[in-house]
Protein: ABC transporter ATP-binding protein
Amino acid sequence: MESEPAAVDVRNLSKRYGGTLAVDDVSLRVATGEIFGVLGTNGAGKTTTVEIIAGLRRPDSGHVRVLGLDPRRERAKVRQVLGVQLQQAHLHHALTVAELIDLYVSFYPNPRPARELLDLVGLTSQRTTRFEKLSGGQQQRLSIALALAGRPRVAILDELTTGLDPRARRKVWATVEQLRDENVTVLLVTHAMEEVERLCDRVALLDAGRIIALDTPAGLVARAGAANLDEAFVALSGKELEESA
Structure:
């Protein structure tokens, strides 16, 4: 991957909250069209790292570039190429699916057509349904559609299947796989091993704000001498991941 152009380039990133070092000298490069997993327990620094990459938080030190752009100094340009779906995103519950998509589409000069977004995430039949009436899986798929409204070349997806049943998870995963087919670069923040094995080309394991390993899922298993990715994570970090509720 080092010889390929980097869609996301992070070097020596650090962020402290009071006495807690949330992100500790993190460096990674994500190639164009790659699905790159950021895996770790709750509190490992995953969300803080991607929020800094998205320009939503200021790092204490380090270098971040998204398609060669500085997320802090070139925010307007970054917003045109980066789509973000964060775990803590809040949407207006009284608006319908179509109204929310139309709202987000209006933010961009060359947006993806609303009908195309609905079809991409399989919500055409729910276009007149209010957000509050959607199932958890449908809400997650809608959040992906909103992140893709501006035709981003890079997408950040944070814990997108937390709390979903197996059927809903598979539908969301199919949407992410379609992004790969469209050569969209994806940063996938998760603590779900099955998700990593199904989707990710490479994965960074975070623990206490540091990257403790970075490889393909199969490479991590081989490096740890483990039978599967769950065992590899335990061997490399000394911790176990909690399953999503």
Q: What stands out?
A: The mean pLDDT is 89. The longest strand covers residues 6-17. The two ends are 34 Å apart (CA to CA).
